[in-house]
Amino acid sequence: MDNVDVHRLHFAFTIIYHYIFPQLTMGLALLILILKTLALRGDTAAGDGARFWTKIFAVTFVMGVVTGIPMEFQFGTNWSRFAEAAGGIIGQTLAMEGIFAFFLESTFLYLLLFGEKRLGPRGHWAAALLVFVGTWLSGYFIVCTNAWMQHPVGVEIGPDGELLLTSIAALLTNPWAVPQYMHTMVGTTITASFVMTAIGAFYVLRGDHPAAARRFMSVAVVVGFVACVAAAFPTGDMQAKLVVRHQPATFAAMEGHYHTQDGAALVLIGQPNIETLHLDNPIVLPRMLSFLTYQRWGARVEGLTAFDREDWPTNLPGLYYAYHIMAGLGTIFIAIMATSIVFLWRGKLFETRWLLWILMLSLPFPFIANTAGWMTTEFGRQPWIIYGIMRTVDGYSAHVSSGNAIFSLLGFAGVYAMLSVLYCFLTLRIITAGPVSGDFDTKHSGAHP
Q1: At 438, is the pLDDT very low, low, confident or very high (cuts 50, 70, 90)?
Q2: Domain boundaries defined on the chain
Q3: Burial call 127-164: b when 16+ CB within 10 Å, e when fewer
Q4: Which helix (H) or strand (E) holds 164?
Q5: 123 touches 114 (CB < 8 A)
Q6: pTM
Q7: Confidence (pLDDT) at 1
């Protein structure tokens, strides 16, 4: 394995593990706010559910912080040449994330956890709102950082080859950032909705905590259905059109579309044969790719071979499979949530055991789908670390040997394994205790994280 590949693997491991936690907290922030809004209107079951999920949010938030800090240090340790060239740009959004969003989120999370009695119902709802704002604002600054690497704007190259930011407004209003942010946040909402429905289904199947479980499960099913549909359209469609416009080789590779064609078919299933540049055993929808891309059945879609080979994504099978896993699971999510909505509307959701089992067992799959989505984004940008400006091979720390990188990677893996055990222990404790009715301050302060 090349030195640069080891550094890429190191960062990939760090960020994939880290993102398990923010994708849950960002989605939970919205759902907790909705539950608190219902509680403000007198729904005691929603209030009990909000307290319960705030505890899980808190533990998950801590894990996100602990695993996120090393990731930012890796810009200097593993990607020093990238950091030297672009640190003055990405440092802007990363600093904003810490100063404006993280502090807001962490400060009001304390009040959300321990301040219900002192703040009163409206003040506590305001704390939930500010946690939500901080969490989602944090997500925007991070997405802006990645969006700039995908589509660099507001920058010029200095006399010594360094990248100089010419417009902070251009960085924060990058046309790539808003669709990517919307798609990302919809993905986090899907994760939180499925986790909430899974735990709710677990309680309902066991006959535990029926009032709170049914209330937060009902909220999660409705929100989850909306999010699943929005992930496909409009947010997914908007993101795909950006890729077509600015990264056409990436689009061709992720669709498994290797040769330019009028009236191109959409591939549902197939195995990419990189040696011959065609798909084995394909199942396709004729002309659908042309229609979805250009809204014309006979439109020409450029294939991968239309572009210089040096600009092809470096991992064609990985990109293809990551994209199709994300899209395939997204379709399944829509079907599950649509079925749940129908049964909820008919008043039979909580008595339909086979559907409750499906919801409960679906818990890990949104994490897989979100991870596959980010893998699609990052595989697709290769071989560029800053698209069109700096190649990945020019950005890593050349003086950090592959042996050193592997050694630290093994160390990270060991530490994260211990953190995983601790996280599972704490969350299982919270789930075992379940939602408890009554005042949060007097009954729960200090009992759980």
Answers
A1: low
A2: 3-260+302-427
A3: bbbbbbbbbbbbbbbbbbbbbbbbbbbbbeeeeeeebe
A4: strand 163-165
A5: no
A6: 0.94
A7: 73
